[in-house]
Design a protein that fits this description.
four-stranded antiparallel β-sheet
Length: about 120
């Protein structure tokens, strides 16, 4: 794993730990042109697992895990992310499968990411 990917994953992990009380257990990121595509596993907290025991609970946890993340990034890019990537973050697309505890985030930057 390159140093840049490692540092990028650390930024993601810290932000999610601060926001939800638990960061992902594993993050796998690849850079493709102007995108960073991250697969995150081991995201869901024990409390979220309990809440997700009903269909409405799954929807609630899903909404929190997707909308909150996207709103947070739209409001303010995490410290150090744009400097590390050498480009401005333009969009974040994010989704999570609560039952499988796997999330995907696609970070779209203005410029091609240099490795």
């Amino acid at each position: 794993m390159s140093q840049k990917i490692h540092e990028f994953n650390d930024i993601i992990r810290k932000l999610r730990k601060d926001l939800f009380g638990k960061g992902p257990e594993r993050i796998h990121t690849v850079f493709v042109e102007n995108m960073a595509v991250s697969t995150l596993t081991g995201n869901v907290t024990p409390t979220e697992k309990f809440i997700a025991n009903s269909p409405d609970g799954v929807k609630m946890v899903h909404a929190a895990r997707t909308s909150m993340i996207q709103d947070l990034y739209a409001e303010k890019t995490p410290d150090g992310m744009e400097e590390l990537m050498g480009s401005k973050l333009v969009h974040l697309f994010s989704d999570i499968k609560i039952e499988e505890d796997i999330a995907i985030s696609v970070f779209v930057f203005e410029d091609t990411i240099s490795q």
